[in-house]
Amino acid sequence: MSGLPEGWAFARLDELADINPKQSFADDLDAGFVPMSHAPTNFLDKLRFDSRPWGDIKKAYTNFQDGDVIFAKVTPCFENGKAAFVDGLPNRIGAGSSEFYVLRPATEDISAKYLLAVIKSRDFLLQGAANMTGAVGLRRVPKQFVQNYTVPVPPAAEQTRIAEKLDALLAQVDTLKTRIDSIPALLKRFRQSVLVAAVSGRLTEEWRAENTGINPTEQIETILKDRLSSSKSKKAPASHLKNEEYEIPSTWCWVSLDSLAAKIVDGTHHTPTYVGNGVPFISVKDIRDGVIDFTNTKFITTEEHAELCKRCHPEKGDLLITKSGTIGRTAIIATNNEFSLFVSVALIKPASNLVNMEFINIALRKWIGEIDVSSRIVGSAIKNLHLTDMKVLAIPFAPLTEQTEIVRRVEQLFAFADQLEAKVAAVKTRIDHLTQSILAKAFRGELVPQDPNDEPASVLLERIKAQCAAAPKAKRSRKTNGDL
């Protein structure tokens, strides 16, 4: 057929390998047992196994041995690429899930690792998935598809060269994946370090040296006066916890979150009556990545919203923080649209227009990301952060002009981290496709150079046919669940 390199030929998989061959060994021999969970999805990952006596696993399980290739036949394991070259089993023998197919090369001139590359190829996975049979959720690749799947076969020597090249290249791909996969954790630590530097004064150390003589005491006094007039409660604000203080610049001072807030309150403690359309009702799931997502909110009536607003009325500029279940997600309200809150979300209203809620948000995010929040969280099934614990949170108060500069710098650094994260995601996508690109080059004969002195694949296939014809016919075995 056209399209193949010189010396290559096409063959069916069942011409290149025995499918699900049987084997017999002494019952007391140690063997490897491989449940589906032990099968890898990456090309080069090793097959894991548990040691068991052969007599315990030889029946009702798929048999295999070192040198075989196994792969999942059932959805979604097949589509996920669960497959492996079998190696390192106790006594070189093993058995595993009945949902495995086994390929045993028909001759030593057929490379098992080349067969693994076939099984891992996009074409095999797509065609296998398209030919699955069975009920939804229990669909399997039929044995007939595996038997008849057509494979481009290089000469034996080239198969070996391809397998060796794949090992080398895909090891490099795995190294790249490992490095790329480590970057999100590094970025998370970077963001946390930025928050720490922001609220400790290190981020604006040089700026502060050029802007001396600013004392925040008068600003705090003004905020406290505004708080007295804006807050319905005339109680003095709660004092901050002294043991949460750390070193800050001499021009800064410590205040409690309660001192800067006209109100710290959570949403309704009862489940409202939901309606098809109305006022959005926000819970933990709707706050993510610093914003409120109204896409999949539930709704309540305007009458119930009006009743809930008597206690907790979210308004533009207020700060939200999740306090139950997933704790510590924050968002500053950026809309004038009305909505209500569930008990899992707390609302912090600024006590004055002098309060920089962006700076408070930075302090809260640093607090959640660094201190031992578990000491403040109660509950076993659902974790909760009490409002009283939030009120006594120690907030480092910088002069307002410096707070503005801190917010600007944090936003700039976070934007840089966001851009890098987007680039990393794009690179990760390309790397994820790289394995299939390499396999495609292998099957086009472009991965390693051809050698005109190699024995043509057609001669190899004729030899395999002659060997099969000369071999004694095996007795027809009873059909099992594995032969679907």
From TrEMBL:
It holds the Pfam family Methylase_S. Gene3D superfamilies: DNA methylase specificity domains. Keywords: DNA-binding, Endonuclease, Hydrolase, Nuclease, Restriction system. One of its GO terms (molecular function) is DNA binding. InterPro entries: Restrct_endonuc_typeI_TRD (IPR000055), Restrct_endonuc_typeI_TRD_sf (IPR044946), Type-I_RE_S_subunit (IPR051212). Residues 5-183, 276-423 form the Type I restriction modification DNA specificity domain. GO terms for biological process: DNA restriction-modification system. Belongs to the type-I restriction system S methylase family. This is Type I restriction-modification system restriction endonuclease DNA specificity subunit HsdS.
